[in-house]
Amino acid sequence: MKVKTTIRGPGVYVISPIGSIDGNTHSILGERLDEILAEQPDVLIFDMEFADYLSSTGIRVLLKTKKALKETDSRMVFMNLQPQIQKVFNILKAIPSLKVFASMEELDKYLDVMQKSVQKPKS
Predict the structure, then answer these.
(1) Domains (range + CATH), the chain
(2) What is the pTM (predicted TM-score) of this model?
């Protein structure tokens, strides 16, 4: 996984994760976001065009970032969600306060199946 970052204007950052955001790669995104959060941004724009997978550990990185931004009245927005990533966001909106899964492993398995069902086979 790679994370491309551009500054769009004063306090406005575009973060473009490339690849899978999962248990093996989430720290790459998390460390880059910690650096950006230290700059006290006004807006984080996540361009998800090249993010092809999002696990529960990736979701935790995003939720941690959202919480940090809320403390400074900053915002985060998403664009170019791939269908499988959009599916994860839809699931999270549908069950924001319900504890449906018994473990992170169970959640990851569910997210994996849901994303694979939406992903087109690469040719």
Answers:
(1) 2-118 (3.30.750.24)
(2) 0.78
